[in-house]
Amino acid sequence: MSQITRFGVSIENALLEKFDQLIFARSYKNRSEAIRDLIRNELVLQHWGDDEAESVGTITIIFDHHVRELTEMLTNVQHQFNEQIIAATHIHLDHHNCLEVIAVRGKTAAIRKISDKLISLRGVKHGKLVMTTTGKDV
Ligand code: NI
């Protein structure tokens, strides 16, 4: 672990009270870890803004596998981006609906492109890209 610096923060009582309520609701044990996570989140957000930066993420999609040619198109996109797609899990939710979670690693621009291509396909009912970090810089 790197060196730790302690610093004081001036904050209005009412704002601090709201912050404490928020972090308690989110199961933080103390303010320090909550503040560190807020800072890390901002750094990760900044990282995503850089198209060339190396990132990781997951794309979660819900789709109806009975929609004509959808399964084939989903597979085609995944083959097209095989360098970035590091894992995929398919779960048959019911007779019609499938859940797929696709783990991706690569440049942020490529990750966004893969996500947009998958989520915009006809028959994909809902999709969400969660971009995170390789963990190296936070
Ligand atoms: Ni299925």
Summarize the structure.
The chain has four helices and four strands; from the N terminus they run ααβαββαβ. By secondary structure, the protein is α+β, with helices and mostly antiparallel strands.
Indicate the topology.
Blueprint (H helix, E strand, L loop, with lengths): L12 H13 L5 H18 L5 E11 L5 H11 L4 E8 L4 E11 H12 L4 E8 L7
Antiparallel strand pairs: 1-3, 1-4, 2-3
Bound molecules: nickel (II) ion.
Percentage of residues in strands: 25-35%
The shape, in one word, is elongated
Largest sheet: 4 strands, antiparallel
**Portion of residues within helices:** 25-40%
CA distance, first residue to last residue: 12 Å
Number of DSSP helices?
Answer: 4
Strand count: 4
Low-confidence stretches: none
Query: Reading side by side through the largest sheet, how are the strands ordered?
Result: 2-3-1-4
What ligands can be seen in this structure? nickel (II) ion
**Mean pLDDT across every amino acid position:** 94
Class per helix and strand makeup: alpha+beta
Measured on Cα atoms, how large is the radius of gyration? 20 Å
SSE topology string? HHEHEEHE
Give a verbal description of the structure.
This protein is of the alpha+beta class and 138 residues long. It is 39% helix and 28% strand. The mean pLDDT is 94. The protein binds nickel (II) ion. Nickel (II) ion binds next to strand 2.
